[in-house]
Amino acid sequence: MNEAASSFEGLSLDCRGMKCPRPIIEVARRIGEVSVGSLLELLADDPAAGPDLAAWCRMRGQTLIASDAPRFIVRRES
Amino acid sequence: MDTSSGEPMLQEARQAWLDAQQAEWGDPMRLHRPGRLAAQALDQARDVVAAAVGARPDEVIFTASGVHASHAAAAGLALGRRRVGPRIVTTAIDHSSVLAAAAASGAHDAVQVDHEGHVDLDAWAAAVGTAGTAAACIQVANHEVGTVQPYAEAAEICRRTDVPLVLDATAALGRIDLSNANGWSVLTGWAGAFGGPASVGILVIKKNVRWRPPYLTDDYQGGRWPGVPDVPAIYAAAVALDCWTQSGRTVGERQHDLVDQLRAGIVQRVPDVDVAGDPVRRVPHLLTFSALYVDGETLTLELDKAGFAVASGSACSASSEHPSHVLAAMGALTHGNVRIGLTQATTSAEIDQFLAALPPIVAGIRATVGA
């Protein structure tokens, strides 16, 4: 995972090339590293990443701020 | 527990098929005795289908598969109404054959659905009312998640705007009473979905509809589907459908309860599971759920090892690179997906066995991926 690949200020997970559910597992593992109210960026090119990240946010009470494959931004709510 | 690609053939249908093969029926267009017997059997089959969907027997056509019926329905209306325009409206969760036929028309509008899979009727009305719309397509019930669409309301919207409606009854035929379903122009189905031969598709075209065959035809079936019909297979399909009409309500109620048992058991025993579809207004035999952090292929193979054959809409376990368009459109989780279709033979004890086997399998997979 290359966390320097993006200009995003904050935690960015580069999961390009990974198959689902791996990108979602990574988000779940690392979301605790950002503070509540802050943003996490996910880069993922698996076609399931968009729908699955949206579903994960719904199930986990987080907010999907932006979904424009391969770039997604989640705000930690809890 | 996998009826996604068809219910195993019902015993009665299998017997009817064998008997019909031995009856030495001929070409139903011929005047000799074998031909007349075949024509009679074909008429009986049309009667059964017509009664099941509230149509006239001469409006019933048998195609070579459900996919052929879907393609013919949409493309035939687009051709018949080409002066109106090419647009075909579907929902976002129609069967891939319907979406492909709509896309081939050159102008496809896929109307969004809610989290349980119900079409947004306001968006439907707006799409159907857009100028240049040749036809609209909707399912009675979705083939993956089982949700019943508000098809009567959707049909009424089409009637008001004078747009012909294709009603895809594939997942519903035999399981939901359609004898009084009105408002559709073309209805499609597939015998394989209700325990008939997989080689029989059903296409019912109402008399006053501007439908033209989008392929070359001949004298068979009123010039609406070419080639000598496979009468023994069609006859067996009608026997299967008739079985459902006779006993379907009992089987359906039992299956509905079994899926309730499954649904409650899964939510109770497996953490982080997303169960898709309408829990109440659905076909009796289908259930789809997804387990977070689990990949569908591993889950399917582990369940197979434990003796449970299930389908999956996850990208890695399907033939396609993409996850189920149905789950994605509903905002449901697409990885770790399991699609269950009960057969007439599924028992409550089998459901209990599945519910006992599932939690340790999911937990085991999660442990190996560090989730």
Topology diagram in text:
The complex is a heterodimer of chains A (78) and B (371).
Chain A (H helix, E strand, L loop, with lengths): L10 E4 L7 H9 L8 E5 L5 H12 L2 E6 L2 E5 L3
Chain B lengths: L10 H12 L10 H21 L6 E4 L2 H15 L6 E5 L4 H9 L3 E4 L9 H8 L4 E7 L11 H11 L3 E4 L17 E5 L10 E5 L25 H39 L3 E4 L9 E6 L4 H10 L19 H6 L6 E5 L6 H22 L2
Parallel strand pairs in B: 2-3, 2-4, 4-5, 5-6
Antiparallel strand pairs in B: 1-7, 6-7, 8-9, 9-10
Q: How would you describe this structure to a colleague?
A:
The complex is a heterodimer of chains A (78) and B (371). With 78 residues, chain A is an alpha+beta fold. Chain A has one domain (11-75): TusA-like domain (Translation Initiation Factor IF3), CATH 3.30.110.40. In chain A, 27% of the residues lie in helices and 26% in strands. Chain B has helices spanning 11-22, 33-53, 66-80, 96-104, 121-128, 151-161, 231-269, 296-305, 325-330, 348-369; strands at residues 60-63, 87-91, 108-111, 133-139, 165-168, 186-190, 201-205, 273-276, 286-291, 337-341. A seven-stranded mixed β-sheet of chain B has the order 1-7-6-5-4-2-3, with helices on both faces. A three-stranded antiparallel β-sheet of chain B has the order 8-9-10. The model of chain B has no long low-confidence stretch (mean pLDDT 94). Classes of the chains: A alpha+beta (78), B alpha/beta (371). At the A-B interface, helix 1 and helix 2 of A face loops of B.
In short:
The complex is a heterodimer of chains A (78) and B (371). Chain A has helices spanning 22-30, 49-60; strands spanning 11-14, 39-43, 63-68, 71-75. With 78 residues, chain A is α+β, with helices and mostly antiparallel strands.
* Rg from alpha-carbon coordinates of chain B: 21 Å
**Major sheet strand order of chain B:** 1-7-6-5-4-2-3
- Element order, helices and strands of chain A? EHEHEE
Supply the CATH architecture of chain A.
2-Layer Sandwich
User: In total, how many beta strands of chain A?
Assistant: 4
- What's the multimeric state? heterodimer
The CATH homologous superfamily of the largest domain in chain B is named Type I PLP-dependent aspartate aminotransferase-like (Major domain)
**Total number of strands of chain B:** 10
What is the CATH architecture term of the largest domain in chain B?
A: 3-Layer(aba) Sandwich
Order of helix and strand elements from N to C terminus of chain B = HHEHEHEHEHEEEHEEHHEH
Kindly, what is the distance between the CA atoms of the first and last residues of chain A, rounded to a whole number of angstroms? 25 Å
CATH class of chain A equals Alpha Beta
